[in-house]
Recover the amino acids of this structure.
């Protein structure tokens, strides 16, 4: 998530490039009392973010744990020793004897994971060493559903790669970076309508990037040319600078195992939030970065599959996103 954390800096500046309306909520036919925007069409099923129920094994009442009242007579003292149970054991639970006793969840036994929770589809859970619960390391969870949408493979050249976020914010070359067609575009057909990337009313797209000591980043920000108003959603892609070398093939994902983050931002309650994350690969065709000068960056992305943050090929990545300082649209 190191890349992701640095993207936060860029988003701040991108959001402030113009004094025109950045929210443009009217394009989503919503007001403060009715948040029925395109973003809301992607409401997450609460079950996606819930962790599987680990379950317990209940121990039965052995019916003999209490000494019956015989009318007030005292039980003879047999020397102060603990009254043995029917197996000759003391009445206290002993973890490791293979018997599930009072206070234990399990004791040396195993259980099919799907008996613990319907969230698992296979595997076997083993009892923890202290008998307090189940170790689900080898339980198998279902793979995420098919991606919500996919963006076709693209090749693009950033001919003027800004040197630092300040230069990017100033946008000296912006007039040469406006395109009639977006680079990354797709639509998501839902029962309640269609969610578009970019917004269908946008007719100009700023495709630009910058580099700093740690990252190389690219942004697609769309807006309505006649008014200059930015529209939602927008796309940000960031890569580790050390990994961006010619002919390198980089993994696109969210966790630290990936060299590239690909995120789609929208806005809810006047806060920028991550609505979708992308998975695929990026090939570095050309890279030319000379300190103190604008650089050049040509890349090819594979087909990029888009997922809700709670249901990705890496599982639920909401914690990673939030730990980087972002809000997740939900």
């Amino acid at each position: 998530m190191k890349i992701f954390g640095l993207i936060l800096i860029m988003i701040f500046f991108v959001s402030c490039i113009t004094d025109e309306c950045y929210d443009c909520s009217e394009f989503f036919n919503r007001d403060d009392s009715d948040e029925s925007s395109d973003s809301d069409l992607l409401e997450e099923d609460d079950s996606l973010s819930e962790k599987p129920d680990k379950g317990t094994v209940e121990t039965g009442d052995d019916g003999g744990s209490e000494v019956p009242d015989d009318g007030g007579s005292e039980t003879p003292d047999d020397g102060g020793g603990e009254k043995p149970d029917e197996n000759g054991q003391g009445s206290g639970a002993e973890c490791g004897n293979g018997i599930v006793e009072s206070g234990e969840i399990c004791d040396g036994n195993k259980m099919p994971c799907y008996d613990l929770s319907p969230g698992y589809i296979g595997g076997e859970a083993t009892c923890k060493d202290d008998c307090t619960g189940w170790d689900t390391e080898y339980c198998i969870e279902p793979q995420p559903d098919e991606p919500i949408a996919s963006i076709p493979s693209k090749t693009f050249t950033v001919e003027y790669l800004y040197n630092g976020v300040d230069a990017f914010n100033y946008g000296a070359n912006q007039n040469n970076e406006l395109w009639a067609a977006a680079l990354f575009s797709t639509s998501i057909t839902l029962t309640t309508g269609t969610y578009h990337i970019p917004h269908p009313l946008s007719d100009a797209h700023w495709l630009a990037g910058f580099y700093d000591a740690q990252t190389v980043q690219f942004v697609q920000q769309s807006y309505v040319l006649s008014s200059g108003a930015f529209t939602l959603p927008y796309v940000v892609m960031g890569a580790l600078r050390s990994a961006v070398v010619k002919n390198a093939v980089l993994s696109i994902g969210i966790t630290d195992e990936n060299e590239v983050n690909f995120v789609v931002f929208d806005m809810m309650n006047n806060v920028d939030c991550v609505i979708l994350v992308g998975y695929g690969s990026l090939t570095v065709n050309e890279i030319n970065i000379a300190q103190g000068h604008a650089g050049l960056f040509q890349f090819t992305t594979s087909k990029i599959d888009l997922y809700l943050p709670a249901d990705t090929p890496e599982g639920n990545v909401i914690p990673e996103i939030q730990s980087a300082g972002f809000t997740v649209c939900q």
In short: Residues 2-15 form the longest helix (14 residues). Residues 2-47+145-328 form one domain. The first strand starts at residue 110 and ends at 112.
